[in-house]
Model the fold of this input.
Amino acid sequence: MLLVIGGIASGKRTYVRSLGYDDDRISQTVDSPAPVLLGLEEILRDGPLSSQDLARLRAKEVVVCCEVGMGVVPMDREQRAWRERVGRTCALLANDASQVVRLVCGIPVTLKTSEVGI
Amino acid sequence: MIALVTGGSNSGKSAFAEDLACSLGPQRTYVATMAPSAQAQARIERHRRHRAGKSFTTYECLGGIAPQLLDSTNDDVVLLDDLGNLVANALFNVHGNMEDPTRVTHRLDTELLQLCGGHRHVVVVYDQAGSDGIDASDQTLAWLTTCGTLACRMAARAKVVVEVTCGVPCVLKGVLP
Done:
């Protein structure tokens, strides 16, 4: 799996498209058969993933998540819990992933790579 | 050469970008973007002190790049510091009302393209934001998206992209001169 992260409007979606995934292979829901999941952070809004959804996520070719933890930790309990879920889930996926790429101004910066393909 | 210098706030982007601009040529133009206010004054003074003696000709460009810069063609080094302020002043008028983000993106991108076409060297500073997970207001989100989109386009046309952290440059694209 390839994990793609980056801030708002950093070029994540454009990067995934450049890998050959057109829009009908990109979905924003976990249970879609599409190989690319876009917007992991939104999926984690309401609570942690079920083990079934986590397994589905791990079976994706590409998971895209907006970076949310690079700032002041919010006072609001819900906001804090959400950010923690996003951070922990990304760390979990990054551990499994064969590649982790961070987008900076549209430039893919490789954080992790392996000999094995995506 | 077109260069984009990015990084978090107060990471040493401006100092690095100034040194880079100085190394590129003797005729230097500074595109100043910060609107004067009581709070901004100290930062403006700090930036001015930094530039003192480096022979920059300054153009105040609040909300758009000055027409005389867009219309000129020369061997100057242009330093634009920074993209976020340029966008903020273009997107929000003095009454705090927001212009249409798509139109602002298009107008500023056209201006940046023209600036890059007319000058030998252009260095643009971009303060990275939008990785903090804060539920931004619609206005802030529009600002983040406009800045991010323009930064991606500048990075695509740049020969060199550098991310500065604690004053340490990390080259993301190309090779520093």
User: Anything to note?
Assistant: The first helix of chain B runs from residue 13 to 24. The domain at 2-172 of chain B is CATH 3.40.50.300 (Rossmann fold). Chain B has one domain: 2-172. The first strand of chain B starts at residue 2 and ends at 7.
